[in-house]
Amino acid sequence: MAFTSVQFVVFLFLAATSYFLTPKRYRWVTLLIANYIFYFMAGAGYFIYLLVTTITIYFAGFKLGNMSRKNKTDFSLVKAELDKEQKKAWKAKFTKRKRMILIPALLINFGILAVLKYYNFVGMNLNALFEHFSIGTEIPVHSFLLPLGISFYTFQSMGYLIDVYREKYEPERNLAKFALFISFFPQIVQGPIGRYNVLAEQLFRPNTFSYERIKFGVQLMLWGAFKKLVIADRAGVIVDTIFGYPETFGGTYVAVAALVYCIQLYGDFSGGIEIATGAAQVLGIQLEKNFERPYLATSIPDFWRRWHITLGAWFRDYVFYPLSLSKFFTKVGKKGRQFLGNYIGKLLPVLIPQFIIFFLIGIWHGAEWKYIAFGLYNGTLIVLGILFDQPLKKLIAKLKINTECFSWHLFRVLRTLILVALGKIITRAPGVSASAYMVQSMVHNWDANILINGGLLKLGLDVQDLCVLLLASLVLLTVSLLQESGVKIREALSKQNLFFRWFIYLGAIFSLFLFGVYGLNYDASDFIYRGF
Amino acid sequence: MIKKMIDGKAFWEEVVKRLSKGEKTNFFFSEKEVLLLVQKEKLTRVDFDGGVYFFVKEDTFHRIFYFLEKGKSPVCLPELTEPMILEEVLLAARERIPSEETWEKLGFMPYLERKRLFLMAKNVIPEERKPIFATEEMLDELFQFMHESFEPYSSALPEMEALQKDIQAQNILISIKDGKLLGFLHFGEEKQSSVLWHIAVKQQARGIGIGEGLVKDWFFTQKNTAKKFILWVRTDNPPALRMYEKLGFLPDGRVAPVMIKNI
Amino acid sequence: METLLKILAELRPDVDFEENKELVDSGELDSFDIVSLVGELCEAYEIEIGAEDIVPENFNSVEAIMALVGKLQED
């Protein structure tokens, strides 16, 4: 069910009511049941995948926990008699044993995800290759429908297992409680990706009814719905038109499309996350932040620390650090210093894993060449940024450029925004060559007149809708700027006078119904990130 | 000896009898279509020991259909000046009988192969589109474009009159820029499905998603009337195959290899 | 019935023969299918089909085809 549908509101209401009416000891059970009902309604056939992941990870974690416990006691008994070499050997042997549990579990679950998501893409391209070389074989094409939230719950449970492997905490011994951890309905649709040590206790403890907290939760949900229904859905019409007919709408339209798509994507994704966070807050659970005013970022790395934060953090903790600190890459660093000089050499164990990470983030978005291109685009920007960080700093100092003033800050924000918008063109255009065509057309056929001669009215929105979009975006910008300077909106709001508060609330609800009217229950514009 | 067919009903009864006897054939018309062909005097036959050939005369070529008695092979083709097209519709999983070699002995060569793809309307991802239909002023430009874009035989290109009717029936979607035609999609209705007959994009405008856009326009205009979308795609056209597969089309098991003689 | 379903499933694995009662009218079975089917039916059930038997009503559902076969077996 869509987050902006009446169904979801009713479901949340019923879930919350049953939750708070349940005796405290069993509240977590009600939550688990609610999660499964939600998941079932998304499609009973997908349920099996969630079950497989739940059971395999639970048992793998359980086993690892037992092995770690036993190892600790065994080791403490003999360690007095072992020398350094022997201790090292013991550790290595134990790690190997743990790996025998971890690796198969990871392979099964990532394998399921990989096959469901990428089988078709790999098959199609291999077939094209076979055709090119006149090889007779043909891989049968099969379209797999992705289970709801598979990317998210797979990552969340893999993170848990790796943490247990690293002996960061004890595994969850209760299968039902573990099932609750990876099926939490507000986050299963599109994140944020949670960590066990932060999320679990909130899910298992009996959260108490609190008017204040529920009020904040509902406000957040309203704000998310506003972003999604009033901003994102409207922006989407313009974006669909321009990207749908690149041959007709070239030149400046491409720039318009890129910027408006940035607005649409942010409104849609962060709006959805806020509805999820608000819903969780109603139930007493705090989800982790996934967005931090990304378009106010001053550099590409900064952008990726503000956009889809939990995904970036996941890759950092479970891919980047293990890779860059691994023996293999330490060796690479050494060799690099030998052959490519000190500067590049020592950066190599950072550069290569970073590039790999962004390639992975690219294909995480979907099985198409354009997502690979997107990953490579970001990877290249990040690597170049790291490589030229020091030299650029020196240059700026030499040119005596003031880096503290507002204009420099603005320059950095705008520069980042342009780079981000270009990247977004790659993901939204119908293909890699289409995006190349569009960018080339943007430069070649630039005609800023379309902004004032009514060219913007050819894109599917009339004057009123365009104004609503503009005003709503300005509201969003204002809120973002306030938040960036430290203001906590919801708390500030509750400190205002009653009259003002209710003016804002009613204004928000009214605008949702008036301007989001075709949005509620509008199935066709499901969340862009939902098929993940 | 070539004989002209004049009795449609008798012909149809012969066809059914031969099918009942388990004769191999590439014939697949319905009774209605058979009667129409005979009426238009387009059907001729040549009998031989072991079977019979039927020829359907098109403007610049002949289409050949055969019936072969059990265990017999095709022989003695008549000498005709214009090219002959032999098209079969097979279930890919089954073997081809008679085999390509047999026909090659009679002078045929493999020409091309198509496979059939389908997509259930309910599986189409809904997307807002702004389709543009061809207008009658474009008739000549469209006709020329069509004849430039497809191979001369076995493409079932419509005549001017039929094309005009299709334009009037809003069965042709186009992509234009500055008044010039960049691409078009010609579709038709068959029972409860919508069938894509022809789609082409100008060489210089390829690679930017116009083809995909036209297909999406097709989906958009037919979403309330068609239960299924069907098309035939040439197997030697990987970019087209990938485009359709990306949109969710799946093969339904039918392939149509085409052989040709006399070009 | 089992044999018939098997023949049909091999011919058109993508069609739902159990549910659909308008196989020809809805376009699920077209003339190519009919042509292939006729040959198979005659061989499997040792019957002879006449021109007058090839009408949509006789092929619109599995039951209809079964009935046709039954009728022809008696002749």
Walk me through this protein's architecture.
The complex is a heterotrimer of chains A (about 525), B (about 260) and C (about 80). With about 525 residues, chain A is an all-alpha fold. Helix content of chain A is about 75%, strand content about 0%. Chain A contains 19 helices and no strands. Chain A has helices at about 5-20, 25-40, 45-80, 85-130, 150-165, 175-185, 185-190, 195-205, 210-245, 250-280, 300-305, 310-325, 325-365, 370-400, 405-430, 430-445, 465-485, 490-495, 500-515. The longest helix of chain A is centred in the N-terminal third of the chain and has 49 residues, at about 85-130. The radius of gyration of chain A is 25 Å and the shape is globular. Residues about 520-525 of chain A have low confidence and may be disordered. Chain B has two domains: about 1-110; about 120-255, Aminopeptidase (3-Layer(aba) Sandwich), CATH 3.40.630. Helices cover about 25% and strands about 35% of the residues of chain B. Chain B has seven helices and 14 strands. In chain B, a hairpin with a 2-residue loop joins strand 3 (about 45-50) and strand 4 (about 50-55). The model of chain B has no long low-confidence stretch (mean pLDDT about 85). Chain C has one domain: Orthogonal Bundle (Non-ribosomal Peptide Synthetase Peptidyl Carrier Protein, Chain A), CATH 1.10.1200. The longest helix of chain C is centred in the middle third of the chain and has 15 residues, at about 30-45. The radius of gyration of chain C is 11 Å and the shape is globular. In chain C, helix 1 runs antiparallel to helix 2 (about 30-45). The chains are: A mainly alpha (about 525), B alpha+beta (about 260), C mainly alpha (about 80). Chains in contact: A-B, B-C. The interface of B and C includes residues 29, 31, 118, 191 and 254 of B.
